[in-house]
User: Fold this.
Amino acid sequence: MSVVRTLLKLFLLTAVTVPAVLLLRHWMATKQYVFNKEDVAKLAKQYAGQDHEQAFSKVVVELRKRYPGHILPDEDLQWVFVNAGGWMGSMCLVHASLTEYLLLFGTAVDTGGHSGRYWAEISDTIISGTFRQWKEGTTKSEIYYPGDTIVHGVGEATSVQWSTGTWMVEYGRGFIPSTLGFALADTLFSTQDFLTMFYTVRVYVKCLLLEAGTLLTEAGVF
Assistant:
């Protein structure tokens, strides 16, 4: 009987999970997005090779002009450490929803590790420094320089390495909550830096609230 119950539970779980995943994929394939990777890359490339702090300031100003109501205000922008896949960097989240995010990212020290494997496509445009990527199934790595854009496809995994002073603009599209497990795992199980975890969750919630407010405003609710 226990085997029957187990099989029944597995069947019910599958019956619920499969339609949910298919509906989610359909929604993500048909919904209207705020950004696209080509526009983000083109904007970031304009400031490649400049001092990264000045470049980031210009990128944020331009983003606010192009996408009003979708970019966090200055008082909510915060650089937060990220420990994931064995590497350590810092990010400044400027936009996030359930299906998109846009952030500034980089490192002040040499670092590298595993890229993670996501239900999302991620593209990075380098402002300064160098980024090395070793793709799964290959025996050679590639180095990217300021102005280059690297696209990490859905379900892909690579070895990644940033040199000191590498900074980039990153855009992700997909089911963003699915990326949080990788982004927070090292913090939870290794560094146990729960303050950083709090900062990460807090800024993501702020982004979600901003998006909800903008959506309701555009719908005429407010």
